[in-house]
Amino acid sequence: MLKRLPLIVICSLLLADSQAQELDNTTSFKNINRDTYLRFSIDNDYFSARDQQYTEGVNLEVCNPALKKNPLTWLLINPHYSVTRYGLGIEQAGYTPDDLDNREIQKRDRPYAGTLFLRSFLMATDTFRKQRWTSILSTGVIGDIAM
């Protein structure tokens, strides 16, 4: 792990001018190949030295076979592939307008906003056909209640 640290720092510096984006844990290249896991992630555009559009996010996700019994899971589309993982997540995201010094409403720009939502998901993988199906149900709030 320590040998990789300089590479991570270098990559972070090279990407310092990039835009922040929300983390999508259901994409195949971010797959954790386990039935049970806990994932915590934080993303922020601080290193790009600008707060534009999506600003920051915190995500906590748990995947466990016991979540198959979660009542929200019954609302998800399940193709019944060979491997199915069930999960539950909570996510908070913050958004800002381009001009942080201007306290007036900025027309044609994103307002200051926060979102908080609960996400129930399943990821079904057909190992024979090399296909993945992801079904997600997100329910949440926006505004002051989202902190």
Plain-language structure description:
The protein is built from one helix and five strands, in the order αβββββ. Helices cover 7% and strands 40% of the residues. It has one helix at residues 5-14, and strands at 37-44, 53-63, 83-96, 113-126, 131-142. It has one domain (5-146). The protein is mainly β and 147 residues long. Strands 1-2-3-4-5 form a five-stranded antiparallel sheet, with no helix packed on it. Strand 1 (37-44) and strand 2 (53-63) form a beta hairpin.
Alpha-carbon distance between the two ends: 35 Å
What's the total number of strands?
5
Strand content: 35-45%
Which parts are unreliable, with pLDDT below 50 for 5 consecutive residues or more? 1-5, 7-23
Summarize the structure.
The protein has 147 residues and is mostly beta strands.
Which helices and strands occur, and which strands form pairs?
Elements: H1 5-14, E1 37-44, E2 53-63, E3 83-96, E4 113-126, E5 131-142
Keyphrases for this structure?
single chain; 147 residues; mainly beta; 5-stranded antiparallel sheet; 1 helix; 7% helix; 40% strand; elongated; disordered N terminus
